[in-house]
Amino acid sequence: MPAARSVLVLGLALLLAQGCRRDPPPRMRLKSLHKCEDGTQRALRERTREAALQVFYGECADLFVELPCRNALVHASRLHEADQLPAIIDGCREAYCPIGKDVEACRPNFVLDRARAPIVWHELSSVILTYEAGAYLPQVQEVLYWWSLGVAKMPDTPAPAPPPSGG
Fold it and tell me: What pLDDT does 166 receive?
């Protein structure tokens, strides 16, 4: 019986040791995630995709802990849609490429092709948010899932009207 008891104690110790292993703690604050959730709902009530993106980037900027990236999202919240992703990618590359070495945006010879900006940002932001969210990742993914479904249904941002002709 002592051998069986030793195996049981060893098995229990291993089980407890596995149960004590944790993911790294999230770097983002839960408060920031809640602000983003609320902001996303508000953004989806906007009339145009550009206005929705402006609200979304401003309200969700705090999910990105590194200051150059967070500041890029806040800055993008004041830009026209066509200029938002290039500004965000530029600021977030600076802050996060050390952890995202294998993504396109972090390659040494990277030059942004605006037509590929959504793909490039999706890849880079996935790496960033996985790093920042820790145990909050499922909640972050859910917010982004509903956001992407909602924003895809929004009307395009109308092109600016041409200046009146002086005649």
Answer: 59
